[in-house]
Design goal:
Layout: E1 15-17, E2 24-30, E3 40-45, E4 59-61, E5 77-84, E6 94-103, E7 118-127
Parallel strand pairs: 1-7
Antiparallel strand pairs: 2-5, 3-4, 3-6, 6-7
C-alpha cells in the first residue's frame, strides 16, 4: 500500500509543468507483505482516459527500479527517483493527472496483473507554456464517476470502447 502521507510532491498541491520543466520527481513510501516479491511502480499520465491502443491512460512510464521485498513488520519503506520527463512524455496544455501505481507485477499493458494487488496515488497537474501564461482553472474530468472512467479493471473491447467488469 502506498502511503499518501509520505508522498511527494505533496498530494494536496497542484504540480505546474512549463515548457522549460526538465523533470518532475515522485516518491513516497510503501508498506506491504510481499512474500519475497519486489514492489514494482508505474506512472500513468491521465489515468482514466483511454489512449489509441485502448489502454486506460494517455502514457505509462515504466519500469522503474523495484522496491525490495518487505513485510508489514518492517513498516513503511521509502523510495524516490520516479521521474517524469515532460519533454519525453508530453501532454498538451491544460489539466492532467499523474498516477503512481504500485503492484507486485505488471502485465504487458502496464496494468497490475492482479487488480487486488495494487495501490495508487494521484496528483493534479497543470501544463502551461510558462508561469506568466498559465490558466489554473481545471474542468472536471470527462468521466465524472468511478464507473465511467477507464481503469485497469475495465478492459477495452476490440473497437477500443470500455467494458465494465
Amino acid at each position: 500500500m502506498l502511503m499518501a502521507a509520505d508522498a511527494y510532491p505533496d498530494l494536496r498541491q497542484t504540480i505546474y509543468v512549463y515548457d522549460d520543466t526538465s523533470r518532475v520527481e515522485f516518491g513516497g513510501s510503501v508498506i506491504s507483505e510481499d512474500s519475497q516479491q519486489p514492489v514494482e511502480l508505474a506512472i500513468y499520465l491521465d489515468y482514466g482516459q483511454r489512449n489509441a491502443a485502448g489502454r486506460p491512460y494517455r502514457t505509462a512510464i515504466y519500469p522503474f527500479k523495484p522496491i525490495p521485498p518487505g513485510t508489514m513488520a518492517d513498516g513503511a519503506r521509502k523510495f524516490s527517483g520516479m521521474f517524469w520527463h515532460p519533454s519525453d512524455h508530453t501532454v498538451p496544455l491544460g489539466c492532467h493527472t499523474v498516477t503512481l501505481m504500485a503492484s507486485h507485477r505488471f502485465g504487458p499493458d502496464v496494468c497490475p496483473q492482479e487488480p487486488t494487488d495494487a495501490s495508487y496515488l494521484v496528483w493534479q497537474v497543470i501544463r502551461c507554456a510558462s508561469s506568466s501564461d498559465c490558466n489554473d482553472f481545471c474542468e472536471p474530468p470527462p468521466c465524472d464517476t468511478v464507473q465511467g472512467c477507464a481503469s485497469c479493471l475495465t478492459p477495452s473491447n476490440p473497437d477500443g470502447s470500455g467494458e465494465g467488469q
